[in-house]
Amino acid sequence: MLKIENLIPLPVFIAPTHNEFRLDAAAQIFIAPATTDTLRVANFLADDLRQLTGYAWSIVAEPTGRSHNGIILSLHADPSLGDEGYELNIASDGILLRAAKPAGLFYGIQTLRQLVVGAPETSAQTATTWRVPTGSIRDTPRFVWRGAMLDVARHFFKVEDVKRYIDWLARYKLNRLHLHLTDDQGWRIEIQAWPKLTAIGGSSGVNGKNSGYYTQDEYRALVQYAAERFITLVPEIDTPGHTNAALASYAELNCDGVARELYNGIEVGFSSLCLDQEITYQFLDDVIRELAAMTPGAYLHLGGDEAHATDKGAYIQFIERLETIVRKHGKRMVGWEEIAQAKIPAQTIVQIWRGDHAAAAAQSDVGVILSPAKHAYLDMQYNEQSPLGLHWAGYVEVQDAYNWEPATLLPDIPERNILGIEAPLWSETLLTLDDIAYMTFPRLTAIAEIGWSPQAARNWDSYRKRVAAHGAQWAQMGIPFYRSPQIDWP
Ligand code: TNX
Q: pLDDT digit string (tens) for 245-292?
């Protein structure tokens, strides 16, 4: 079993009591009160534990008095736990998990789940009893936006792969999955008003590999799967650059009326929508309307990065007009930091990746998401020998991913403007879920801890020790993680 001190992300308060609770086939899950919300979370726990242990626990309403041999999930809790906090008390005769909101119960379950899964020494206990170390935890997140981004445009990843990625995010209490759905190399989401986007634009990928797209039904299934894990999908349609796949699909989107060739390379910054033609805005209105209809979440990401083939003045006007379209369809626009050059209203969200436009974002007083490439880019190589990844922002070893503090990263951006952090994974060099896993672990867990745990409680020495314990869990889960020389793996 994982020691209670080895949790990732580190909880705000932990008091170990050095005993153990034994789970066995007769254990039950109690819900208080019994509502669709608590039942949903209880079902998630039951399914998860069934997969792990083979036990099929029953879910029982409203325990009266002290229950024996069970786990109580209760929404009768201190309201100061907020939307996502929880309190977990593991005693030798029962487990009590309390939260003010269902998301808090879900995160408490993730904590419990880490403690039940065994390090290798538990292989001996697989027969009949699973143990959990005892103690008390009280835990609330630091930031509201704890995200990861997956680029499904350069290489496409199927629904099942994205579901596995969502599983991993949920484990570490991340709550946003930003999907980079379109780029020069591919258009990955069905838009009914513009069917050639996927018929043509979905047929390519880097080096001609991993083409494809999601139908709207498949996309809705992903939204649902993520929502069951308290993760909000944030879809991105990159504009006005990174649009070659659209420009190859429809000749009329090009200023010269000539369709572009499909693109299989990995250069950036050469394509642009035609900003002085009305059809471009009709196109965007259709895309945004359909995307908004598939998106229960509040956010639509419209890119805005690296528009090197777009005139600067025209770019600024374009972003301002685009924001009004997103707002008309009831959503908040998110964009890469370049959009801060435009006049953007306070509800817009700016995602910083280099920091060049941090001052402009501060000037607009908008919420920001920090994705500093030198720390948070999961597609950067770990070192010169890394078989996958790029290195334009440098090499990002595990310590680089872990050792940074959002509040002091950029002098222009005060903590009150920071909604949170996000780790992007661009897929120019990635073809399989194993490739994704190798780049993700153990760096995404570092980002997850920065997003959740108080700065004062965390430090690299502690993280590297805890990660070593998680390596055994990843191995059990079949995740081919990077065995960084910075960690003393068991
Ligand atoms: C920069 S980060 C990009 C992407 C590339 C990535 C590769 C950003 C907003 N744009 O188009 O995929 O570098 O690391």
A: 999 999 999 999 999 999 999 999 999 999 999 999 999 999 999 999
8-state DSSP, 380? B
The residues, any chain, with a CB within 8 Å of residue 264's CB and separated by 6 or more, are: 185, 204, 205, 206, 207, 208
Atom of ligand 1 nearest to the CA of 306: 10
Calculate the alpha carbon distances from 130 to 13, 15, 50, 124, 338 in Å. Answer: 24, 21, 12, 10, 51
For CA atoms 273, 278, 281, 287, the dihedral sign is negative
Q: What single string gives the DSSP state of each residue in 240-251? A: SSS-HHHHHH-G
Cα separations in angstroms, 156 against 79, 176, 189, 238: 42, 19, 11, 15
- pTM greater than the 0.85 cutoff: yes
- Give residue-wise pLDDT tens across range 348-379: 999 999 999 999 999 999 999 999 999 999 99
Contacts of 241 (CB under 8 A, 6+ apart): 268, 269, 270, 271, 272, 303, 305, 306, 307, 308, 309, 310
Q: Is 228 an active-site residue?
A: no
379 lines ligand 1 (CB under 6 A): yes
Whether the CB-CB separation of 236 and 291 falls below 8 Å is answered with: no
Atom of ligand 1 nearest to the CA of 154: 12
- Domains detected in the chain: 13-139 (3.30.379.10), 145-455 (3.20.20.80)
Closest residue CA from atom 2 of ligand 1: 353
Taking the centre of ligand 1 as the mean of its atom positions, its distance from the CA of residue 342, in whole angstroms, is 20
